[in-house]
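Hi there,

I know you've been waiting on this one. I reran it after we fixed the sequence typo, so this is the corrected version. Both the input and the resulting structure follow.
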Amino acid sequence: MGDIMNNLERGPYTVRRITELTDAQTRELALVLIDCVEGGASVSFMHPLSLPKALAFWRRVAIDIDSGARALLVAEDAAGIVGTVQVVLAQPENQPHRADISKMLVHRRARRRGVGAALMHAAEDAARQSGKSLLVLDTASGDAERLYVRLGWTLAGLVPDYALWPHGGLCSTTFYYRKLD
């Protein structure tokens, strides 16, 4: 099985599940995260996001991947990783049927190519394979909201002034859920 669980060809990129992060992949993921923060994505980090801080984040994610608490999916093109999404599988004992979608990131150079939709489909498949029947996510991005609605996610609500934009100022966050077949 190696580090590939699911390998789907989707145009000029491939989506796959990573079960063990290499140093090179950690660096590529850090660069995607930095690009998204520079581009204004509200994904828990403030601008400027340093490479050491981004690398530290992905190293913490690697621990959850190793323990099975989290699934990591990446989209790659000829130049490397262009997008990623996580499925947080470890939940409280009264919520074993649920998972959270986290850090759905697409590098600005790869947007509008179907990468986000492919990552979300792969995330839903990974959740199903892990026995999950309900997914939850939050977003502060209008583009992401349109994607989630197009993919069949249901709006749960909006919380005003929930977080900060990476360049400053408060932003609202919208919550969505999806029941899996």
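Quick highlight: Helices lie at 23-38, 51-67, 115-129, 142-150.

Best,
R. S.
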